[in-house]
From TrEMBL:
InterPro entries: Glyco_trans_1 (IPR001296), Glyco_trans_4-like_N (IPR028098)
GO molecular function terms attached to this record: glycosyltransferase activity
Glycosyltransferase subfamily 4-like N-terminal domain location: 43-142
Domain Glycosyl transferase family: 159-316
Record EC number: 2.4.-.-
Record keyword ATP-binding present: no
Pfam family, one: Glycos_transf_1
UniProt keyword annotations, A-Z: Glycosyltransferase, Transferase
Family: Belongs to the glycosyltransferase group 1 family. Glycosyltransferase 4 subfamily.
Protein name: Glycosyltransferase family 4 protein
Length: 344
């Protein structure tokens, strides 16, 4: 979510619209988190009382993030300021479905009260409309800058085919089925392969799993990677793997596709609307180790297929998920809502 907001800032929209970013959450002790949330809330409240706010754009995930941001949303609504409630949570459905009936009704009311709810894909739009039928729901996908790479370089003969995973190491992202599938794919194919895993989380548990599966010598654990180091990994990757159980619209997949890297992922969240099966990569059901292994082996064995899928994915991101496509749509929404307020 933070990466999305940082992307908007980099696009210049903060300057063009005089946007002030209030971050009501930090990692740390409970007292620090409470102080940060209170400080952010009173900053907003002061500006609302001063008539300094034309629009509030809220970015929310699930659980604590949803409730914390809902306080900001309801407060802005009380001042009759337009509110965009931008939902990023990959497990929002799981979070809402687990709430007691009274809280589900409260959630529906909050989503109905704001000016519009922004979601990342049509599947999430359908879900939110089911939760709050009267809410106005707008699809605005995540986007990534397009790197200056025209065609993925040819894979060097004899070099291992590199599979890349970037994300939190744990169950939700499907890391353990991925390790099992990679071990099976290596047994199925004579093509040399390596799996690079960038991320933090259950690092030691994942390393032990790799040792138990006999693939420790073919798996690199890189820790959390950002900036130029991450871009270098994308440049060198042959296949991007994200076998998650829950997702919204992963920026990491968009980044991989923008670099011309074919994607192997799962049919969850907005991923099936992004990755076209057989064109930009392969999709399997979450947790299906045999299917994941089969697609790994196919992609490892066919360099021409990888290049075709990578080129197709890059064209798709350029046409639908680039800054040039998404940022103007957000600015159009800003213009609509602020103009409507002035007209009242």
């Amino acid at each position: 979510m933070r990466a999305v907001v940082e992307g908007y800032r980099a696009s210049g929209i903060f300057k063009r619209w005089s946007v002030d970013w209030i971050a009501p959450h930090v990692e740390g002790s409970l007292s620090l988190r409470l102080r940060t949330a209170a400080s952010g809330y009173f900053t907003l409240l002061k500006r609302l009382f001063g008539g300094q706010v034309a629009l509030v754009h809220i970015h929310a995930a699930m659980r604590g993030s949803f409730w914390r941001k809902s306080v900001f949303a309801v407060t802005a609504c009380m001042f009759r300021v337009p509110v965009i409630f931008h939902m990023h949570g990959s497990e929002t459905d799981k979070f809402i479905n687990a709430q007691p009936e009274i809280l589900r009704r409260l959630i529906a009311t909050i989503l109905r009260r704001v000016s519009c709810v922004v979601v990342l894909s049509s599947s999430w739009k359908t879900y939110i409309e089911g939760v709050s039928p009267s809410a106005r729901v707008v699809i605005l996908p995540n986007y990534v800058p397009m790197p200056n790479v025209a065609v993925k370089p040819a894979h060097a003969d004899g070099a291992p085919v590199t599979f890349l995973f970037l994300g939190a190491i744990g169950t939700r992202k499907g890391v353990y089925p991925m390790l099992e599938a990679f071990a099976k794919a290596k047994r199925m194919s004579s093509v040399p392969m390596t799996l690079r895993i960038g991320g933090s989380g259950e690092l030691e548990k994942a390393k032990q799993a790799a040792i138990s599966l006999g693939i420790a010598d073919s798996v690199e654990f890189l820790g959390w990677v950002v900036g130029d180091a991450k871009l270098k990994l994308l440049e060198e990757a042959d296949v991007y793997v994200l076998p998650s159980f829950h997702e919204g619209l992963p920026v990491s997949i968009l980044e991989a596709m923008s670099y011309g890297v074919p994607v192997l992922s799962t049919r969850v969240g907005g991923i099936p609307e992004l990755v076209r099966e057989g064109l930009d990569g392969y999709l399997v059901e979450a947790g299906k180790v045999d299917d994941l292994a089969d697609r790994m082996a196919r992609l490892a064995a066919d360099a021409a297929l990888r290049r075709a899928m990578g080129a197709s994915g890059r064209e798709r991101v350029q046409a639908n998920y680039s800054e040039a496509m998404v940022v103007p749509a957000l600015e159009a929404l800003y213009t609509e809502l602020t103009t409507q307020r002035r007209a009242k």
